[in-house]
Amino acid sequence: MKLPFILRWLLWPFSLLYGAAVVTRAWLYRIGVFRQKRLDAVVISVGNLTVGGAGKTPMVMYLAQRLADRGKRIGILSRGYRGQVRTDEGAAASPDADSSVILSDETWVMERHLAGKARIGVGADRYAHGRTLQQQGIEWFILDDGFQHVRLARDANILLIDAKDPFGDGKLLPAGRLREPKAAMARADLILITRSDHAPAVEAIVSHYTNAPLFYAQPELKEIYLEGRGSDDTRAAEWLGKRMFVFCGIGNPAAFVENASQWGMDVAGHMEFPDHHHYTRENAYEIERRAEAAGAQALLCTEKDSYNLRDARFKRLPVYVCRIAMRVNDTEKFWETLYSIIESKRSKAQ
């Protein structure tokens, strides 16, 4: 969400301080003053330069699915933003609970679709979680949202760039959406431009900072189902022909609204919330009120949003959920390049 001009102007000095801090930190790791920790396993990092969605979660799931299909034992290491602690029985517990797994909206989506194919370690100390999963036989790790997590060494650094909004407004946090200056692209081993098949303007900017191989990927609609039910529910296809009111609390809400229209939905209007927003009964009432005023017949949100609807109560309109996946162009070349990067990095580390 773009901040008002006056607020960006007031926050600009803090962006200078933030920028100096992140550049200095990266430099100290690069020269060896701060030492990276290394797992005895293959680590693939997936991340971006901006706050908000460039498709990290679908990309992590794409990699995990493909690697699992190739017989790899996969672990995913995630920070777990705003997670809850879940006991082995699945109930929410206190943060001090034993034998528990922290779930956030993003890790919940991953666990839901990768159960039996990938183990998920969630928490700030990703090295420690990786060591624990290694003891369980995991040999390949995907570092979710890991581009800025330079403390953990990786064998491939995949950087995602949203073609529709590649660098926010060009300003660093907190005045803008950039987590790091554009020069940080030099750390990437592979660039993935998302939400486009061809973006020469973005390529031109990227080429100023890195000569890393570049690929394209697009979000792909896998299914739509009624909230609280699965895609096998007999009413799942009833969304066809309905006017939809879109609501979401994700990093790039405008992208989801645009995608819904591209997927052939009749979008009557939309309502945006902060990323990872936990919906309340008041939110549900306001969403339905606006939807009905716009002439909508149903509501639409992302799968990530559906995790945060536990306290919402929709009474008049059905809520449909989109499951989104990532489709990578030139798939064979992408995997050949990724494996080559990993092999090269590991041979140099030995």
Question: In summary, what is this structure?
Answer:
This protein has 350 residues and is an alpha/beta fold.
Task: Describe the protein.
With 350 residues, this protein is of the alpha/beta class. The protein folds into two domains: 41-218 and 328-349, P-loop containing nucleotide triphosphate hydrolases (Rossmann fold, 3-Layer(aba) Sandwich), CATH 3.40.50.300; 220-325, Rossmann fold (3-Layer(aba) Sandwich). It has nine helices and 14 strands. The chain starts with a helix and ends with a helix.
Label this structure with key terms.
single chain, 350 residues, alpha/beta, Rossmann fold, 2 domains, eleven-stranded mixed beta sheet, three-stranded antiparallel beta sheet, 9 helices, 33% helix, 24% strand, globular
Detail the topology: elements first, then pairings:
Layout (H helix, E strand, L loop, with lengths): L4 H26 L11 E7 L7 H14 L4 E5 L5 E4 L4 E2 L6 E4 L1 H10 L3 E5 L3 H9 L5 E5 L11 E7 L27 E5 L5 H8 L6 E13 L16 E6 L4 H10 L3 E7 L8 H13 L4 E5 H5 L11 E10 L2 H19 L1
Parallel strand pairs: 1-7, 1-8, 2-6, 2-7, 8-9, 9-10, 11-12, 11-13, 13-14
Antiparallel strand pairs: 3-4, 3-5, 10-14
Helix pairs in contact: 2-3
